[in-house]
Protein 1
Amino acid sequence: MRKLICRLSLAALVPAGPLLAQLAPVNEVGLSMGHLHLAAPDREKEAKAWLALGGQLENNLSGNIPIGFPGVVVLIGQSRPVSAGSAGSLIDHVAFRVPDLDAALARWKGVDTWWKAGSWGLKIEPGTKPGQAFVTTPAGTKCEILEDKALKAPIVFDHVHYYVDESRLREMEDYYTKMFGAKPVKGEPDTLSMPGAKLVFTKSSTPTAETTGRSLDHIGLNMLNADVLKALPQPSKAKGPSCSGLMRVPPWG
């Protein structure tokens, strides 16, 4: 049986200077949303697209290009080929909120033109409901954009959206709850909350691919300190591998 794997890394993000990303305070387990780790054939073009979305260049982290948004840091690794974009994988897309969707799309319209010309811009597509649109980066990471008129910041991170085989859905949600302290969101079925982001799970009628090797390779959680890693449940107490800096969510599928 084909294995479906999503990588998840844990790190205490302590750069040389302050993080403009303003990561959320950690939960009782000592964790919050941390980063999206991306791959791209041309990381300079990929970085320009994320900056066009409204991110800010952070201090360098381990050779990655770090681009900060309120709630998350986007880490773009060294340039390398990717097997595909995020759509169709376990993490189909991520989402951000903006106060005025039309104004945001107007700012990105020229970037969309650059995409069509084969350069580094953003591919823009309409959503299926009011106040929603989608943009895709040059390397293929899909981002849902949601309008939140009460929002004071230009753009903030909102959620990570998983597409999961129905037979594994509950197991995966339980894993995030028991392992990382994620909480169910009242009134939103199959949605968990971590400080800084929601984790949204949708039943998939078709198999979804592993994220490894795609443009969105894995997500990362921010740790309060190294003691948090030592305190996380081990395999005998929770389904999953031992916690050793870089973790893999258990195989799904």
Note: The first strand starts at residue 7 and ends at 11.
Protein 2
Amino acid sequence: MHRPMHRPLLAAILAPVLLAACGGGGQDNGPGSAPAGASYQFRTPKAGAHLAYSASLADNLNNTLNRSVTDDVTAVNADGSFTVHEEDPSHNAIISGVTDQTLYPTDFQYNAAGQATAWTVAGRAGSVQCTVSGASGAPGALAIGGSWSTSFTETCGSGPGAVFTQSGTLAGIESVTVPAGTFTAYKFVSTTTRTLNGVTRVESTTRWRDQAGGDSRTIKEASVFTYSGATPPAGALLQQVRELQSYR
């Protein structure tokens, strides 16, 4: 699935949620092994799929925060849409400065292109529902070297909507090694921008998605965050890396 390549609006009112990415497996065919005319086509995960990730975060207080993440595909619909439950199995509270980096249990809804359309977070103060208006991420089909540009709005609870702009490119196919193994993967590179409370945040992300397996699991994702305008809050993210540990 396409996990939105940014932290959602809910971060401003409850907790910054890392939207998961899930899918099928693959084997290493070596770097640059894309066949002629190769292109990406999103492949829906199977109901019951379970993926485990590690995540490492660095913030502007010089803290490194580590946590685990699990994604469980709870339903797949006839139209290709599906739902995923994500949580940190340790359920540890992670507070840095004034920023709540806790990964609260979250249920996501995705369309047939693997783009998040809504989610519900079970936070400390109760559940909060978020919705997305517009295409939140790369399209479900893209040629190697192809690009996209989109704008979408995320609205959580009764808070104001936050507008995101994103541009990206499917840079190619390459080999990537993570604890779960070595995979041949599509390499997506994107930039996502949002302004909230006078702070403009730019997230530059590289994401590798399984190319050879039965569905479009994310193998690895690495993001760098930069800020301008007003001063970002204490504990704001500077870097984030997520790697696949295991799957079934």
Note: The chain has a mean pLDDT of 87.
Protein 3
Amino acid sequence: MQSQPPLPVALIGAASGWGAGYRQTEDGPPALRNAGLDRRLAASGLAASWTAMVEPERRWRDRPDASTEEVFGLVARHSAALAESVDTAMRGGRFPVVVGGDHSIAIGTWGGVARAIDRAPLGLIWFDAHLDAHTEATTPSMNPHGMSAAVLLGHGRPEFLALGGHAVRPENLCYIGARSYEDGERALLERLGVRVVGMDEVRARGLAAVVEEAVAIASWCTAGFGATIDLDGFDPADAPGVGLREPDGLRRGEMLAALPLLRQQAHGRSPLRAVEIVEYIPALDEEGRTARLVGDMIAAALGGGAIEGRTEAA
């Protein structure tokens, strides 16, 4: 198998916190920018630069009392701006790496990728402790970051579906690391035939074997595929800077060893189109471990060398 040649990397910040039950995820992208993520990636051999920072609407910053309908509107508008930034980067010959932000940004990220490839079939590998496949009928929280996968599969609110609806076919979606979810969202995925690999199976087979299967699923009869990585999919020892810490998750070493498999090309495989990393909260990070993991994963996925030195979240 040969490796895809690297494109110039467009770092796109998606500073969204309205989709979660806590707002601090909107601090993640600016913190990574201020900490020199682009310089660290350049030191690894990747041509990386920030092309956009999609920020929340400032007039809502001090409004913790926003209603559910207002929150949905904020998420939809943020997702629309993000989709535009992703589409622009891809049409300009750059490889988008989107850093968030809560996982509702997946609506904008993958809606933008789908637009850039003219709505051709798109696959997706979803690394996460959770399934994020709720609809309004099943969610216990009404938080949009728990609905983004359902939207991409064509289930959800009209304003979300207009941006990312049906961006991903169920036969081309594969979860890795799931271990905390509700019956309603799991039922939707089972009905649609989505492949879900829980942590027990990851431990039994090894992450590399699971990623190989996921790439085969996501690239089957598609024009490309992506990877979305929720940092709470990791064991908190490796990624403490998240709002929902779930024990017994993915480990740093095995992930960095497996990520290069995303860009390996073989007969019948479509190319990797974009990478998304979400749910980083710098205020909860310990010794910058989560921030360093973000940079190391991008380098590993895109063919950069080892990154030297420390990145501290501001």
Note: The chain has one domain: 7-302.
